[in-house]
Amino acid sequence: MSLASIAELGDTEQLRRRVYELNKECAADIPGRGEFFSYDEYIQRRFAADGYQPEGAILALDGDALVGLCVISYVPGREWAFIEMTGVRRSHRRRGLATALKTAAIRQARGWGVSTVRTVHHRGNTPIITANRVLGFLDTNFMLNLDTPVSRDGRFDRPVKSAMSCPDSA
Ligand SMILES: CC(C)(COP(=O)(O)OP(=O)(O)OC[C@H]1O[C@@H](n2cnc3c(N)ncnc32)[C@H](O)[C@@H]1OP(=O)(O)O)[C@@H](O)C(=O)NCCC(=O)NCCS
Questions:
Q1: Domains and CATH numbers, the chain
Q2: Residue 130: CB within 6 Å of ligand 1?
Q3: Model-level pTM?
């Protein structure tokens, strides 16, 4: 098992399609997620977004197979980075992969010089909430004050979401 970013692997159309399929499979287990984006929508939201950073799109590989991802976005100049999605294929869960992926994402965020890493999740998503707490994330209400481009796809309008924040000291 190994971790590598899209920056390291090469940001190709072929890899983006594999990342899409991986994200789609993992997202099916997010409570209340509903239908997943089409590939074109996904490209717009994830890869064409202001905060997209190839070095923040971190993948877990089992041999050549993609088995997990953690995507952290960062808009230069902002004091925080945002974890867009963490997912691990069902076949590879409970082996510490999400923890390893998020740890790598937080390390990348430190490299950008941010003081805080933020994320959101469904209130009923016990696996990710538990994993986040182990990593040092704290509950926060930052969403209530959120007035940034990351809300442009409407995710923050959903009342079922809650938010967590990982201060630099964690
Ligand atoms: C959430 C998810 C990424 C966790 O991936 P993972 O690789 O299995 O997580 P880890 O092995 O690093 O687990 C770390 C800790 O989180 C907690 N945890 C993970 N899965 C859990 C579960 N199903 N129930 C309760 N706690 C869980 C445990 O404390 C675990 O440590 P332990 O295995 O030593 O007890 C994975 O279940 C997944 O892809 N879910 C669907 C997508 C999703 O919901 N993503 C989050 C979107 S906000």
A1: 2-149 (3.40.630.30)
A2: yes
A3: 0.89
